[in-house]
Structures are given as C-alpha cells and as structure tokens.
UniProtKB/TrEMBL annotation:
Enzyme Commission number(s): 3.4.11.-
InterPro entries with a match to the protein in the record: Aminopeptidase_N-like_N, Aminopeptidase_N-like_N_sf, ERAP1-like_C_dom, M1_APN-typ, Peptidase_M1, Peptidase_M1_aminopeptidases, Peptidase_M1_dom, Peptidase_M4/M1_CTD_sf
Gene3D superfamilies for the chain: 1.25.50.20, 2.60.40.1910, Neutral Protease Domain 2 (1.10.390.10), tricorn interacting facor f3 domain (2.60.40.1730)
Cofactor dependence: Zn(2+)
Name used for this protein in its record: Aminopeptidase
Length: 844
C-alpha cells in the first residue's frame, strides 16, 4: 500500500452539501455530495472507498476524473484553480462491516429489526460520501438524508433537524469540523431528554428492545458531565444538543461524534436496580471520556493522526477528573490505579512498543495506532504527571487559552505544551518530550551504597530488550525533600542515608501516589524499612508496592518465589485496589503450575489461605452499611475461593443458583458471574449449557450477557466446547463485536484452549474478512499472546503468525506478542522449581 499523501495540501474544502439515500431492503446507498473549497492546483483529489462514482461536475458540466482504489481517491481535473464547487454522484453497498454507514440488528419480542448508524473514525467517512477524509480538512456540513422510512422511526444527527421535504430529512448546518466526526442514525428509537444549566439539550437514545429505565443513569451522567466540563474548561459547549446513542452492533467502545456520541449498548445502558458498582463506574467513565472529546478532539482536533494521543490521552485523564467531581464517593482515581496504570506499565515494558507520539506511514497503520495501553492509558498517565506538576489552576488556565487559540481548527502536542507551560511558567514540552517521543519507561533503583542513598534510572524491560541508554525527565514525587522534583540524570546521590532517615523519620519512598510512569526497585535495606511500616502506607501506596513487585518479577529483577511469603501481609486489607493488585500476582502464579497437578493443588491451598478471612468477613450477600470497597472486594475474594475449590464456597454458590434458577438475571450483579461460572464448572450439563446460551441470545441486558459469556466458556465438557465454537461464526448467537471476548475466554479455559486455537488458525481468513480493517482486529493476536506461556504454544504461535508479519497494521503486534510469550516461557523455565517449592513450604 502506498504512502499517505495529504490531499488537503492541494484542495481545502470549506463546505459540504451531503445528500444520501439509503435503502435498507436493497442494501444500497446512493448519493451526491457537493463540495466547495479552494483548489491550489489543477489536479486535486478527494477520498472514496468502495464508492462507484458515476460523475463529477463543476458548474453543471462534467469534468475528467479517475478512481484509484489503492489510494482510496478520486482524482479530478479542475478547469482553474481557486474556489471551486464539485458535485460528485455515486453509489455504494450497505454492508455489515460496522464501518461507514451500516445496519445494527436486534430483536423485539422475537422479531428481528435493524437501525442504521455510522462509524467514520478513522478513515471510514470516505465509505459514506466523497470527502477530504483527513483531520485537518475541517469544513461545515449540511446533511440531507432519505431512507426507506416507515411510521414510528426517528432520525438524529450531529445537529438538530431543520425540516423534512419530499421524504428527505434536512439538518442544520454544522460548525466547522473534521469528516470523521460526522454522524447520523435512524430507526425505531426511544429516548429520554433533559437540559443543562446552560441550555444544552441532552438526550439518550436506544432501541425499544430495552426498558426505558435503562437510559436514566446515562442521562444523569451526561448532563452533569457537560455542566462540569463547561466550568472546568471555562468554554461553553458549542452545539445545541448532545445525543448519546446505544448501537446494538458497534466495534469500538464508543465514538465522540460531535453532538451525536455513539456507544456499545454495554457502555451506555444499565439496569439501575441491578448493576454492580464496578459496571456503573465503567459506564460513567466511558460517557465522560466521550464528552471530554466534545472540546478536546472535536472543538480542537489533532492536525494529523500521529497526534492521536492528543485526543485520547487527554480524554482518558479527564474522564476520571469528571467522574470524581460527579461522584466523589466512588474514589474513581482508585479505578485509574487498577485499570490504566497496570496495562500501561505491562505493555510499555515490551521492547518494540510504540511511543505515545508515533509517525504514520500508510493508511493501514492509522488503525494500528489505537493501542489502548499506550495512546490511552500511558498517555493519560503522562497527563496525570503534568497535572500533578502544575496543579489544576494552571491546567484550567492553559486549557482555556488553548481552546480560545485553536477552536474549530487543529493543533499539535507542541501547542498544548505551549499553552500549559505559559500558564504554569514551566517548560512542560521539554519534560514531556522524553515521555512521548520515546517508548518504554525507567525503573529507578534506590539503594544505599557506602552509606549514601543513591538513585539511578535505566529502561525497564520485560523479556529481552535492547538498552539504548534512554533517559527520562522523571517527576520523582519523593517523600524526602532532598530528592529533586525532576530527575534528569542517570544517577544522583541524595546524601548520607542514616542522617536522612533520622531527619525525615520515615522510610524513603518514591512516586508517592503512583502518578508518575516509572517503577522502583528498592534494595533490601530500604525495602525492609518500608515493610516494617506497611500499616502506615495508604491503599494506593500499598498497591504500588505490589504492582512494582509483579513487574520486577516479570522482568526477572525480582523472584516470584521471594514475593510469595510477602503476600499474606496484604491479604486482610479492606481496600479494593490492594486486593486487586494482590490477586493480580496470584493470577501470575498460575503460569508456573500445570492444571490438575499436585503443584496446582499447592497454589490453590495458598489462595484459599489468602482469601479465607475476607470471605468470612464479607460473605455472599451485601451487608448493611458496608463500604464501596467492600462491595468491590467481595467478588475478588469469592472468585479466589472458588478458584481454590473451597468446598463451602462452591456449595454456597450452588445454593444461590438453585434458589434463583428461574430468575438468574435478578441475581445480585456483583456475584452473578461467580455463581453462574461455578454452576457450569461443577454442576454443568448439556441442558444448563443450552439454557444459558438461549438466555444469552434473548437478553438485552449487556451486563448479564457478559456474565453468561464468562460462565458458558468455562465449561470443562469438550463436546460442549465444540458446540460453542460452532456458534462463533453465527451472528445470531454471537455478534462479531463480541466474538473476541468469547474466543479469549475459551482459549483461557484449559479444556477449551486447543479447540479455540485450532479455530482461529483454521478460520483466520473468515475472521479477517469479517472484522479485518477494524481497529480491534489486531487485538485477537494480543489476547492469544496474553494466554500462551509454554514452549509448545510459542512455537505454534510463531509458525502461524510470522508469515503474516508484513501485513499492514499487524506487524508491530505480531513482533511484540512473540516477545511477550518468549518472556513468559523464559520466566517459567527459570523460576518454576523455586515457585513450586515456596508454595509447598508456605502451605504445609
């Protein structure tokens, strides 16, 4: 595929009149697009993909054009340069790819129905209408949509509807915006609406397969989020409305189309009477993420896709800032510690990982940029570091100036650092360059050498890594004032340790609050001091210790065998984030034991010992006056007890199932996945399998669907696994958007791993045809690598994927994931004996 050419250099559109006629019955799109803009050369191009162009006209006269499908362009000869108005007539298929304009399918009372929606990010607007499909090519848009309409249908778009004439719905002209943010949808929709303090109309839309009450939570969060952002950004929301739409088929999690945000149903709709706190927090952060984009990404947009992080990293931070303001009792920054921080640290330690800011060389690489662990999670950690450095007053002042300077236009990362740096009187750009332009992160080794407290930084790798001597400007966040605010050097000396220790009166620690993107390796003197004062540490600080233990062990700078005896010291914590980190290490220990072996029995005995007091304290049912931490910790420790095959836990879960067999969806949402999975694993039958699979097909409750997925895929019955895999390509059972989760869960089930692995290898061509070209496609490789950890699986993985390594958009993922599996294989080979020996000794 050829290198990207920026079409905007030769043709700068200013306005589009877009008419699209959609026939759902015939699955066709016909349309004409009139583009007014400036042609700086006589040969200009606009993007198209899968469009059949019938004519290009200027002033009513046909002009010469050619179509280049490889470059996804229409190349046009204009009579003269300067302002020109083109009219392009075309047709296209209406496909089920979840890209461009596409149908979503659902059922109401057993009747199959569809609604039409759009997904234009990254480069899919060109599948709907001819355009200069680049972020910098901002223009205004007037949409006119016609479709095979029947009574009871609703159509919505970025802007309010202006009028209807001859069956065509005309919408008000948009503000100046990028093509990938254009959106519309129609079908039999229901909605709930409200109005913000400043008069913005906010609405939540969904199909009529859902109960109306499922829209309430999203409506409340959306309204409060817009009100919060208007105040925080000190910049008004720029459109008359903000619609949130749940689409039954949607590849991404959500999409920030300006004024019409689209979501997976699972990330917008929920049952207010029976949804776990964990799920409520997740849905709230998705909504606040997308609404943060209405300013940061939509009002001001990255100039080119290499600055994608500018959109996503910022929105990823702001989702937490907003939810913290709306629901402070949720302690949402603790969720940041359990979600964003660990995935960023894990992936960013693999040699070959992309940097946050990365060049784009061809169109297929654009979708490959959407690495959630880097562009979203790591980037958000970078901005959290900046926020901690400059404070909220400077952050808000800088953002206000940034929006004023660039609104309705485009910006680069340098523009943001310039605005924030001026507000904070600090050279933010210089500090952030080392974090954004180079991949990876440092481990700081803190040690006492000849009585002196020394710090040194070096790039941290999990697995083999090529150390090129990279250095970072590190916000140390130390608890000793002798440590500098920013560490730029490779090694620094803080002075006599005993004098410092006596003077400060507390153990030396770095990265207080775990906001900076590095980990710490303390020597034994410093670590013993910290562990002797463990009860004085906050939950986040205790979590950070466990997080760094795990990463250092993965990088073979610490032994898992040495960590095991420390874990009981954390096991009785009432903090959810400590327990999450604790059991993340427990899950890592599973790779050292063979399923069904005596060594696994020792691990299960150890896990049972770790979880026993917490299970006794919390039980299976919510208790009056319990904390949010208790609610969130309960499924963690109960899940551990079930893994450990604690007979009382297995029995209790079975009794709950039996007593609620005919109302499983009404089971308390926080324990429901555990109850269902336990039943399938220990009391499963073909009848139960069929019953749960039918429930999955019929329910519209996305949370319940997820629980059923986790349960059904845990069956130990090989014949049922075969039946399940036969459903992988049946969209009436498993929608393509959900297939990766099913595949991953069967792969992680020891009884199903071979069958799942055989399926993806045998049916790769089908998978590529169905979801290839989508930003989620490469993650099938990721989830496979995350499960595999044996030499045999490594060899098979390489045999299958190495021939595909030159596939655009897959190259980096395949290369990195080979390294991921190799590192686990080496780790297990090096430490298995010591880990098993330690497990046996601590469980005697």
């Amino acid at each position: 595929m050829s290198t990207i050419k920026h079409l905007y250099e030769k043709f700068q559109p200013s306005h589009y009149d877009v008419f699209i006629d959609i026939d759902r019955e015939k699955k066709t799109i016909t349309g004409n697009t009139t583009i007014t803009g400036n042609a700086s050369e006589p040969q200009i191009s606009v993007n198209q993909k899968f469009l059949t162009i019938s004519s290009v006209q200027i002033a009513g006269e046909d002009v010469p054009f050619t179509v280049n499908n490889d470059d996804e362009t229409v190349n046009i000869t204009v009579p003269e340069t300067g302002e020109v108005t083109l009219t392009i007539n075309y047709s296209a298929p209406l496909t089920d790819t979840m890209m461009g304009i596409y149908p979503s399918y659902y059922k109401v009372n057993g009747e199959k129905k569809q609604i039409i929606g759009t997904q234009f990010e990254t480069t899919f607007a060109r599948q709907a209408f001819p355009c200069v499909d680049e972020p910098e090519a901002k223009a205004t848009f007037s949409l006119a949509i016609k479709f095979d309409e029947h009574p009871g249908e609703t159509i919505i778009a970025n802007m309010p509807e202006d009028h209807v004439s001859a069956g065509v719905h005309y919408f008000q002209q948009t503000v100046r915006m990028s093509t990938y943010l254009v959106a519309f949808a129609f079908g039999e929709l229901q909605s709930k609406k409200t109005t913000t303090e400043s008069g913005v109309e906010v609405g939540v839309f969904a199909t009529k397969a859902h109960q109306l009450k499922e829209l309430d939570f999203a409506l409340e969060i959306a309204k409060k989020a817009i009100e919060f952002y208007e105040k925080f950004y000190q910049t008004p929301y720029p459109l008359p409305h903000s619609w949130q739409l749940a689409l039954p088929d949607f590849s991404a999690g959500a999409m920030e189309n300006w004024g019409l945000v689209t979501y997976r149903e699972a990330y917008l709709l929920l049952d207010p009477d029976n949804t776990s706190l964990d799920m409520k927090r997740l849905v709230a952060t998705v909504i606040t993420h997308e609404l943060a984009h209405q300013w940061f990404g939509d009002l001001v947009t990255m100039k080119w896709w290499d600055d994608l992080w500018l959109n996503e990293s910022f929105a990823n931070m702001m989702e937490y800032v907003a939810v913290d303001a709306i629901h402070p009792e949720w302690k949402i920054w603790e969720l940041f510690q359990t979600s964003e921080a660990p995935i960023a640290l894990q992936r960013d330690a693999t040699d070959g990982v992309q940097s946050v800011h990365v060049q784009v060389n061809n169109p297929a690489e654009i979708d490959a940029l959407f690495d959630g662990a880097i562009v979203y999670a790591k980037g958000a950690r970078m901005l959290v570091m900046v926020r901690a450095l400059i404070g909220d007053d400077a952050l808000r002042e800088g953002l206000k100036n940034y929006f004023e300077a660039h609104q309705y236009h485009n910006a680069t990362g340098a523009d943001l650092w310039d605005a924030l740096g001026k507000a904070a009187n600090l050279d933010i750009g210089a500090i952030m360059k080392s974090w954004l332009e180079q991949p990876g992160y440092p481990v700081i080794e803190a040690k006492v050498v000849d009585g002196q407290l020394q710090l040194s930084q070096q790039q941290f790798f999990i697995g083999d890594g090529h150390d090129t001597g990279r250095l970072w400007q590190i916000p140390l966040n130390a608890n000793y004032k002798e440590a500098p605010q920013i560490m730029k050097e490779q090694t620094i000396n803080l002075g006599d340790y005993q004098e410092l220790r006596q003077q400060e009166g507390k153990p030396f620690r770095l990265n207080i609050g775990n906001n900076s993107h590095f980990i710490v390796k303390y020597d034994q003197t410093l670590m013993n001091d910290i562990l002797d004062h463990l009860d004085e540490l906050t939950a986040i600080d205790q979590r950070q210790l466990l997080q760094d233990f795990r990463l250092l062990a993965d990088g073979q700078q610490l032994s898992y065998a040495d960590i095991i005896p420390l874990l009981p010291r954390f096991a009785d914590s009432h903090s959810e984030i400590v327990n999450t980190a604790l059991y993340a290490i427990v899950n890592k220990l599973k790779q050292f034991v063979t399923p069904g072996s005596a060594e696994e029995s020792a691990l299960k005995k150890f896990v049972n010992q770790l979880s026993a007091k917490q299970v006794s304290r919390l039980g299976w049912k919510p208790q009056a006056g319990e904390s949010n931490d208790d609610q969130l910790t309960r499924p963690i420790v109960l899940g551990a007890a079930l893994y450990a095959e604690n007979p009382e836990a297995i029995k209790a879960a079975h009794e709950i199932f039996t007593n609620n067999h005919h109302r499983l969806e009404k089971l308390p949402a926080d324990i429901r996945p555990l109850v269902l999975r336990n039943e399938v694993k220990h009391y499963g039958s073909k009848e139960l399998f069929n019953e749960l699979l039918e429930d999955y097909r019929e329910t519209t409750d996305a949370s319940y669907k997820g629980d059923l997925n986790g349960a059904i895929t845990s069956t130990p019955d090989n014949s049922l696994i075969t039946e399940l895999i036969n459903e992988f390509e049946n969209a009436d059972t498993i929608k393509p958007q959900d297939l990766r989760g099913w595949y991953r869960n069967v792969l992680a089930n020891n009884a199903g791993q071979q069958a799942a692995w055989d399926w993806i290898r045998n049916d790769w061509d089908w998978l590529e045809k169905t979801v290839g070209g989508d930003m989620e496609f490469a993650t099938y490789i990721t989830v496979t690598a995350n499960v595999f950890h044996t030499p045999a699986r490594l060899a098979e993985f390489k045999q299958f994927f190495e021939p595909k390594i030159d596939t655009p958009g897959l190259t980096r993922e395949i290369t990195m994931d080979i390294s991921v599996i190799e590192s686990k294989v080496k780790l297990v080979q090096a430490e298995k004996d010591a880990v098993v020996k330690t497990l046996q000794s601590v469980t005697r």
